[in-house]
Amino acid sequence: MAKLHFHYSTMNAGKSALLLQAAHNYRERGMETLLLTAAVDTRAGKGRIGSRIGIGAAAEVFAPEDDLAARVAGRLEEAQLACVFVDEAQFLMPEQVWQLARVVDDLRLPVMCYGLRVDFRGDLFPGSAALLALADEMREVRTICHCGRKATMVVRRGPDGTALREGAQVQIGGDETYVSLCRRHWREEMGDRARR
């Protein structure tokens, strides 16, 4: 039975590596997949999913205005597909999440989405909020804070190294910009000191 999956975490937890490994497993068994990534994120190159551990693969890009259900249906007219993989799923529009749900329900194709849950302010991304509401299966991909606890938040650093509290929700960056932290240390970075 096809399902809509959402694998979520903070930055640097290995989401893209997990996606690439799962897609490889399908291809190794002779099954075709469709890999999608957000057009806005070009850190690995345009139309490329890349992991910090050095692996990568070509992917089609999606933009906010794209109809993903129509794209998948068009691909199915050309060839068989076994699974659809979406990297940087936080950048999906809520309507695109509904489109992916239709791919699962109507085309009976599994869709595996990988992305961030919250931004640097602790707010849900619209695509992540829709996935949390609609996904059939959710899995947290874990990483750790510098203290050893599970990291659930991310802080964005400014040029001087201090934590930013304001700014656009989307700013593409990696280790030079973002740090994954547990909630307590994120609160401290944001100026909310723990009470003893």
Automatic annotation (TrEMBL):
Subcellular localization: Cytoplasm
Protein name: Thymidine kinase
InterPro entries the UniProt entry points to: P-loop_NTPase, Thymidine_kinase, Thymidine_kinase_CS
GO cellular component, one term: cytosol
Subunit comment: Homotetramer.
Record key words, sorted: ATP-binding, Cytoplasm, DNA synthesis, Kinase, Metal-binding, Nucleotide-binding, Transferase, Zinc
List of residues binding ATP: 9-16, 87-90
EC number(s) recorded for this UniProt protein: 2.7.1.21
BP GO terms, sorted: DNA biosynthetic process; thymidine metabolic process
Catalysed reactions, semicolon-separated: thymidine + ATP = dTMP + ADP + H(+)
Organism: Rhodosalinus sediminis
